[in-house]
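Researcher: Last one for today. Full complex below.
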Amino acid sequence: NAGVTQTPKFQVLKTGQSMTLQCAQDMNHNSMYWYRQDPGMGLRLIYYSASEGTTDKGEVPNGYNVSRLNKREFSLRLESAAPSQTSVYFCASSEAVAGTYNSPLHFGNGTRLTVT
Amino acid sequence: DQQVKQNSPSLSVQEGRISILNCDYTNSMFDYFLWYKKYPAEGPTFLISISSIKDKNEDGRFTVFLNKSAKHLSLHIVPSQPGDSAVYFCAARSQNAGNMLTFGGGTRLMVKP
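Model: Here's the assembly. Have a good evening.
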């Protein structure tokens, strides 16, 4: 039971470089999310996809783009990385609307990104 | 301005004693609250939740209490075990915010043997 799988686990970028974080879930969940975790800030939602074919901005979308490739996969792209994007990124999925009864978020193990 | 706050960055408790983790919120539209536990190098895992129509929910050693008038919730762990040592996040969902959960900054719990 893999659950939510994120790749890569670690990445170092130089300012201005681009990269894509990959996420896949095998739980047949409808909704998928990208969060970033910064010290003392908790987890903040970057983008989410309520269902295949839809994406919406979260709390901190600037500097990011997403693609819901199919029901299983949801990628996060940084077009021109900045030091402020140094963070730990978590992908998550849920069967239905996040936080509703019996539909908690299931998280991957994170990608630690450093932008120099 | 953070709508969900965990004012204690860390908490140390002796094994067997009670751990109480606190969380305050400001948005009166929050209608569902969750607690997540996170070990190092892993993603958060769901622990327990409570709807705003209740004031208590219990699951084994874990109990969450909600005080709506004070906009305060707490997680009680009894008895605490060394394996409970982790970072705990509270999260809240607003009735009109769709898929967005708002998380607190986390509290690191250390349970000493």
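Chain A has no helices and eleven strands. The CA atoms of residues 28 and 72 of chain A lie 7 Å apart.
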